[in-house]
Amino acid sequence: MKRFLLAAGALCAVALVIYLAFLGDGPEPIGPLQDLQDSPVVPVEQDEPEATAGDVAAAREQLFDAPEPVANDGPPDTYTRALGGLIGRLVEPDGTPVPDMGIEALAATVHDFLPEIGALFEEQQAQIEVVKGVTRTDEEGRFRFEDLEPRGIYLLGIDQGGPRSTIRFVDHAPNPGEVVDLGDVRLDPYVIFTGRVVDEDGTGVAGARIRATNLPSIIFTFGVQDVRPGFTVAFQEDVNDDWRVAPIPAWATRLVERFPVPATRSEDDGTFRLEGVPIGMATVLVDKQDLLSLVHGPVPTGNAGERHIGDLRLKRGQVLTGRVADMLDDPVPNAEILAGPLLELAPAAVLAPVATTDAEGRFEARGLPDTEHVVAARPKGGVEWTIVTGVEPGYDDALIRIGSTHHITVIARNGAGEVLKRPSLAVQPVTGIPLHPLLVPSISLAGRVTYKEDGSVLIDELDPGKYSVLARAKGYTIGKSVADLTRGPARVELVLAEDQSAVVQVVEAGSGEPVHYAMVGIFDLGAGDEMKKVPLSNRRTGPEGRVEFDGLTNGQYRVSVLHPAYATAEEDFSVPPVQNEALTVELKGGGSLKGRVHAGNAPPDKQRFIAMGMRGADRFPRFTVTDENGEFEVTHLEAGEYSVTVMQRFADQSLADQISGYEQFMPERFLEAVITEGEQTYLDIDILGSGIDGPTARIRGRVTLNNAPGADLTVSARPRGEWRARKSARTDANGLFDFGEVPAGKVSVQLQQKGRSGSFMSGRLAELSLDLEPNEVREVVFDVRTGRLRGRVLLDRNGGPAAGAEVGLRAEGESGEFNSGTRMGLIADRDGRFFFESVPAGTYRLRAHRDGYTEAVIHDIVVPVGGEPPPQELYLSRGIEVAGLIELPQGREPPRFVWVNFQSEGKDRASSGARVDRESLKFKVDGLKPGRYTVQVYAGESYEPIVIDVPAGGLDGLVLRPQLIPEQPEKLELPGGR
């Protein structure tokens, strides 16, 4: 899948990902081990078949009662006093208070997502609980949350499950002991949709669910509308790989029904009234059991009031039938069946529960689309899914043949070879997916385990496949091995080393007083790159400030200590500890970063978002917002070097607006700061300054768009070779902008394409290349006159829509001052349609692409001022494949990421690429036409391009031997010293 499609899909899928990542079980609302250090193991052998608001903060603070006293068995006062709080007021777009509305404080911290490794041995999967507080607004719309951990990422979940359901990012995180006033949190303006849900005969459908959202319609080409409780995702990582099912944690499946979009149900006669529809281009989703789900729109909502959208027709769809049998052709009753249409964009499918097999092993599911499906089955209580692809409901009778189950015989021994009786066991499927091991659910062992007299343990009824087997026993470390059941039963022996223990004493620096309730995490530095960042255990210190860790083996470890009243502290130590003494960790107050943001001699026109992260360390970012004077402060920072970014605020925008385009997230300034323990670091940030040494120039200007001021547009400046000097600015109501100082020399100034709610667009409207003399002041004027361009991308094979096709627009030649820099991209909707609503007048080439298909290009399209050319149609044809392998020069190890790209010669310059398998260095590139190509290998170093000819039938077994580009001397020495 191409980079733009991935970027667009990633941004648009934020609507789902953020929600699934940050929500979890919590209070009910009111209205998402392979590198675990191995112990010695005996090789696996096959078993025998049988076996805004600073001025009102103080006033609001007095309107709330003091917090309830902390219970004696809870955290001490020294801890709770250091926690933070959030207050604010929920209002309508016109500023009217919103009373009696439920709000949740949602947060994610590192400890929420990284439970102890011991959680793998629990029968009940560890739950992610990130609902940190629930409240309702009072009669004046005010809300308050207390006892919030300062180090975290917070969202406000507003009216969850209600008609105004939405979320807001909290960009002003509290410092320890601080109550932050978020000011007025404005809800989105909305309209009301009315209509009727009918079936194919025009009869009203009762009980249908109707939802509406102005999230970009691209997300529905990723199958988001098919996500429902019990869902999972089937995918094929590469064209040569088998299909697999991604393990979806149980907590994620329970969150689907709480997705923050307005929803309602149709009445007995099919009529409905849906309040809270966000203004913009809204997509309406309708579903009902046994009927084909409907994705309607996007349709314009209008600006206010009520709109009747007519009849929404649900079709019966197709019927999927099939049978599940074992290898002896005996029926498998009560098997679970998942099914979902193959996605247009990638070899993947969103699978939903559709049926359970009867006594004869047969199943039937209704209301499915007439397209290729992926169908998966597993027996009741089973682990692995058996997948069949290419099934067309209404035509095929699917046969899913499930292999026989096998068992693992596990023997756990100590270092002396003695069998350890009745060890605790955990079994995980080896997915081959780069997931955190604690996100892969352990298999329930209830009813599967038999302890034998000889001390061995039989784990039965496991599907064919590979499994991680972990064992632990009191007084011993965790042992791990892999059992391969692809061909039959397996036997594993694990050697559990005697465990070591370590005591950590946490004290306050200076006073030496013990620190109660600090969170201490221990990390194994000898584990793999990923696992050494995962805590083996997280524990709270007691009143004496001590905590003991057991289950350790000899090696190097790191402890990380968190307490809201102190800066984060880390210490490395060895096991066994030197002289068996406790490791003492001193907690310090840390330093602080204080500063002011201004524009020359004037205060900033708007508040700014400040984000900072410690360089070279895995820490949650800290962030804050400037006050009305441009001032900010972040406290309790660990000493070290930090990267600081200044940018425009975006937290007051709706989620749809935030993911409509990335132009709004461009940083205004990059800075660095050094934090010193016990000291305050001050940053004076002039957003008009360059922030670098050397000669500078100044750029300011104006944007005129169709003879009117181009307001609220993002303009960026990119000095050549100065990454940290890249800057952005936002035009004001008069279309004016000012970058201030930039490095003298060559600078590219770009006017960015503005995304809008309901769609996603990237790229730039116009670009100017400048060569600036030192101390020069350059006035830049973008006088842009635009037209429009629309069209459709279709498939040659049947004339059907090429949903999700990547559509790019680029100026043809260098004919115009501004349009020569125009470069835009978007994604075709479900009907293959696309619309560029603001294109600088000029001549363009239009390009469409989708994986597996050749690119389609139309040249010399003239876009007039204020008008548009006839709708364009691009037809995609199935491409041919080139498969082969890469032989790097001798002694060159492949990096973690290897890519190969094919670019055709000629006017169109079509391009297609693919990831190269790092182990085998094999690749497969599709979507090519016959012809000559320049092939470029990207493998961490610079390689010479290779020219090849691709015949009509494609190529298989192609061997590419790229040669390194010779290093050029910085200064060329001529013979004779000249």
What this model shows, in words?
By secondary structure, the protein is mainly beta. Among the domains are: 52-186, Immunoglobulin-like (Sandwich); 503-587, Carboxypeptidase-like, regulatory domain (Immunoglobulin-like); 590-687, Immunoglobulin-like, CATH 2.60.40; 690-782, Immunoglobulin-like, CATH 2.60.40; 786-876, Carboxypeptidase-like, regulatory domain (Immunoglobulin-like, Sandwich), CATH 2.60.40.1120; 880-960, Sandwich (Immunoglobulin-like), CATH 2.60.40. Helix content is 4%, strand content 46%. It has 7 helices and 67 strands. The chain has an 8-stranded antiparallel sheet. The chain has a 6-stranded antiparallel sheet with strand order 12-11-20-19-22-23, with no helix packed on it. Strands 1-31-25-28-27 form a 5-stranded mixed sheet, with no helix packed on it. A hairpin with a 6-residue loop joins strand 58 and strand 59. The longest helix is centred in the N-terminal third of the chain and has 10 residues, at 3-12. It starts with a helix and ends in an 18-residue tail after the last strand. The relative contact order is 0.09.
Main attributes of the structure:
978 residues, mainly beta, Immunoglobulin-like, 4% helix, disordered N terminus
